[in-house]
Amino acid sequence: MIKLTNRLSAVAELVRENASLADVGCDHGYLPAYLILNGRIKSAVAGDINEGPLNSCIQLVAEYALEDKIKCILSNGLQNIDEKDCSDITICGMGGELIAQIINECVWAKNSEKHFILNPMTHPEILRKYLCDNGFEIHNDIIVKEGRHYYSVLDAYYTGNIKSYPQSHYYLGNIKNFEYKEYFNHLLNYLENKSKGGEDFTDVISAIKEKL
Q1: Residue-by-residue pLDDT tens, the chain, 212 positions
Q2: Nearest residue to 121 via CA among 90, 147, 99, 148
Q3: In what order do the strands lie in the sheet with 70-74?
Q4: What values do phi and psi take at 19, rounded to 5?
Q5: Per the confidence metrics, is the pTM higher than 0.90?
């Protein structure tokens, strides 16, 4: 049976029951295969821009005889994925800027019935700002520890309501659990160092210190 990493387990937990899934940047295809094998979703499209990872996904799908449940396609982001094939969309393992770009380039992304589960490996603040500036509402927003690393996992729906937030919101979002002090201390150090270069992160630094 497939076992997911802490990061992908957190992503899997946010996928809705009985969803049809589009997994962007599917890599080996562990996430959709796990969700199918555990009866969580009914079908999936696994997409990757590179043939190597996609071939690994195709092999995994064949190994578990899931060809009738998981469709593997070569796709740059969501460009080759039909909106009728997915209710939930996972975009994992890439930078926040690229995830924002993938959503922005998807002609059907602004649909309130679609559920985006996102795992920015870097710059989650850029992704949060994009979502808020473009009418998406962030629901769950969590920090996941895996080994020595920490990752952001969040989900969002399109509402059409564009909201402006203080800068601190894009760094802290809807995070409710601040148990991983190491993550927030690292973020604090990063922003304090950037401040020395002339950028103003006063409100962000204050907001982080209030949580620690």
Answers
A1: 899 999 999 999 999 999 999 999 998 899 999 999 999 999 999 999 999 888 999 999 999 999 999 999 999 999 999 999 999 999 999 999 999 999 999 999 999 999 999 999 999 999 999 999 999 999 999 999 999 999 999 999 999 999 889 999 999 999 999 999 999 999 999 999 999 888 899 999 999 999 88
A2: 99
A3: 70-74, 41-48, 19-24, 88-94, 115-120, 149-158, 136-146
A4: -75, 160
A5: yes
